[in-house]
Backbone:
């Protein structure tokens, strides 16, 4: 899983920083704080922490469609979601009185 590789990369880079390794870019010796690397590492660590803290009942909103979902279950690889709107049970004999068919699946 790609997330675990990112977490491993963060650990390696942080170890390099704590061991005193220095960054050379274009022949110039730079301090880690002169780069965006520490900020990027923090973003990766924060996102990783959020993934591990999703709990049943958490409400999420899709960034593009705006549809809201509830977390039903979350393990290390899969998040099970239910839409915010509940499933509707409708009597078959009344369905065509109240609804128009706008698209048929094959």
Residues:
């Amino acid at each position: 899983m790609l997330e675990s590789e990112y977490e491993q990369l963060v650990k390696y880079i942080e170890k390099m920083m704590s061991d005193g390794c220095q960054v050379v870019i274009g022949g110039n010796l730079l301090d880690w704080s002169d780069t965006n690397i520490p900020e990027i590492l923090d973003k990766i660590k924060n996102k990783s922490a959020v993934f591990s803290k999703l709990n049943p009942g958490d409400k999420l909103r899709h960034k593009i469609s705006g549809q809201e979902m509830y977390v039903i279950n979350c393990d290390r690889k899969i998040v099970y979601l239910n839409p915010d709107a509940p499933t509707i049970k409708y009597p078959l004999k009344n369905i065509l009185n109240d609804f128009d068919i706008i698209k048929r699946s094959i």
